[in-house]
Predict the structure.
Amino acid sequence: MMNKQVFLTVFCAIGLTTMMAHGSVAAKNNSATLPPMFALGIDHGMMQVVYWTYTDEPQYDAEYDEFYEIEHQAWQLQENLRHNAELYTKLIVDGDKTRDIKYVDELLLNPDGEKLFPGELHGRPQIPSPGARFALVGEPALNDEDLAGIVIVTDSYLAKHKPMTIKPASEEEILPLPANVIKKMEDTYGMKVERSMQSSIIGDRYMSGALQFKGEYKHPQKDRGPDYKAALALEIITDGNKIYSYPVEGYYFPDEGPTWNADDGGEYFPSQIVAAFEGPQGPEFCFIHWAPESATTGMFTIQGNELVRQLYAVYHTLIDENFPIWKKDIEEMKRLYIADDPYENENVELTKCAHVFIDWEGEQIWISDEAEENGAFFSREDGELKLITTVRGNLKPSFPESRDGNNYLIVSGPAGGPSYYTEVFKLQRGKVVEKFNVMEIYGEIDECSLNGKTISAEEGKAYLKAIPEAREPFIFWEEINNKQ
């Protein structure tokens, strides 16, 4: 049987290209046909429509003939946004209200001058994405939480489409879909509903939600072979007694159960309606379907008796990414390192760097020579790199355990003859808050200071005793020669 993890990787890749084909393609320079867009990115306090495909027009390749039209339609939808970005002047807030916005610019390159990779949503604001950036006009400003998961529209679209209120189906608990909805769907598909939930009430008229059926789904018209087993969920929108559904197929593993997205635990959750409009052709529901490793954007419409789904993009969501170290960071760290002691450091060849997570609330970088004998530690405070301390052949770093919100870096080593020198840096919330120095001779404290002020030997002993035991950190070195 196909391995579940391998299947999900292949399934998601196929799903991405397939879904793109359903995206509505607007005509250039015609704001009346430009659809709502999703600003899921945040960059330097601006909201950003993150690009989902490359900006270069796809070239036809006979070997990949079946994907060319899909890829080209995705590119065309993005191009329409790019060439008409200044026409998007309204941000939908609180369901049925708007704020003025303005197009600022387009971001395509990272600080190293390299092309940014599309189709990814980064968990760290320090990692840029390609896309169109917009700023709010007027006050109040929005915080980062408000800037994510929002919909922007053109004035022409808004002139013909009235925004609707959106509120949770329940503030207190997860409610199942009404019994009549469940029965109707069970009768329609000949399967039993395993779980269901209401999601939102829209315009005090529509209700959105989802359900999933129990067991394997046998599609009446599709035969994918004996090894393919499907699971089935439904996106649901109701309008009074009218019930509209859209089927979403997943994969069914007999020994493990159903799955629709990687790491979904076998549960399908409804798409989140983030904006909705009453338009000349009926209601339009802008949705985001969040999953553990992806975010899918698109629109539901009601056409006749059918709920139709048009997908814009499927993004890969990245959370546990490392902080980027750009070329300009390398140059700044080298400059600060040499400036600290030009005579000793100017001829040291620094060849690699690594993040050392001394304080997980901040960012600390170790830059070093190949032998890890000479180098320096830096912290990034308020976006600025600051030198913590340097290391050299006789002074080696160690990394005590964190305790009670206190995090430590120690640099210590022989200082000639019977002398032994130690520097202790205490970090809190990403910043160095305390520095302790001590010189010992034959194991006895000769002199010590805290934040530049002399303290007694007894106070120094107590300070050292309170520091937790050292731990062995995970260091992943990155060569910096290719960043020059």
Summary: The chain is about 20% helix and 40% strand. Residues 1-29 have pLDDT under 50 and may be disordered. The two ends are 48 Å apart (CA to CA). The longest strand covers residues 306-318.
